Amino acid sequence: MYEGIKHIFKHTFTMKYPYQKVLLPKGFRGRHLLYMDKCTGCGICAWICPERCISMVPVTDNKEYPQNPEKRFPQYWYARCCFCHFCTEYCPTGALDYTPDYELAEYDRELLLWSPERLSRPPTNIGEYQSVFHGKDGNQGVTFEPVIKQKSK
Q: Please, what are the domains in the chain?
């Protein structure tokens, strides 16, 4: 009973998502970003993936890729991806990178299949809402406050 009464006077730690979002730490591993001009189509990313969510598919566009004459690029099935990012670490040409984009939820399961063209688009919705990380206190945990955007003087 003492523990219950003690917690009545403490602040809650719930964030008001999607209006409040935490600033992501440096090196956060979100969705993948494909640089099609660097990809050679070697398939190491598909081979190293522990969840087998990557498959190499041909792309039918009019662009020429001299480093990848077969035009085979990775396609991701995000319903299976565990975001270990072995694919980005083992890519010999650096064609795969990660972004801070973590909002990948979809209403339709087929939309979780990301084509190479979709993977090559950089995220645009990052930073729409922001919040500030104020630190961790042993007694109070992590608190978040919305960022107030002020004009510079």
A: 1-23+130-153 (no CATH), 26-125 (3.30.70.3270)
